[in-house]
Amino acid sequence: MLELAWGWLTFCMLSSSLEALQPAIQQLEEWKIDAPHCDNFCQSLLEKLIEKDAFNPVILRALQPLMQSDTQKKLCWKQLIGCLRKLKKSGGQNLVRKALDIQELVSLAANARGCPVENARRTLESEC
């Protein structure tokens, strides 16, 4: 189980919730017009899961809708950078390295950035 600010969630509940979020994540770019900080939820959720050792790469499927256009890929990249910055702020460079050890996260970043995985890893580390 995973302890978050709003209580206890099982991974199954969280996983199905993230899959339910996919349609919302597709509209994230539009929502940012009216609510510029609405993407903080996604960044914070990823950050807390990594920080609490509760991260499962299946969760990254929720970001797959952001891989359909160049604009959406930029937004996906920003979500990953935002997550890493939150990790750095809450736990320092050790948490950032922990996140960068998650191959699926770095692979998603590479796809979003359109570059090799090692370039994405270096860029993620330097930008956070």
First-last Cα distance:
29 Å
Radius of gyration: 14 Å
The largest sheet, given as strand count, sense and whether it forms a barrel, is:
2 strands, antiparallel
Shape: globular
Percent helix:
55-70%
Q: Strands of the largest sheet, in order across it?
A: 1-2
Order of helices and strands: EEHHHHHHH
- Strand share of the residues? under 5%
How many helices? The count is 7
Question: Would you tell me the overall average pLDDT?
Answer: 83
Number of DSSP strands?
Answer: 2
Oligomer category: single chain
Number of domains: 1
Sheet/helix structural class = mainly alpha
Poorly predicted regions are: 1-9
How would you describe this structure to a colleague?
The protein is globular. With 128 residues, it is mainly alpha-helical. The protein starts with a strand and ends with a helix. The longest helix is centred in the middle third of the chain and has 22 residues, at 70-91. The chain has one domain (2-127). The protein contains 7 helices and 2 strands. The protein has a two-stranded antiparallel sheet.
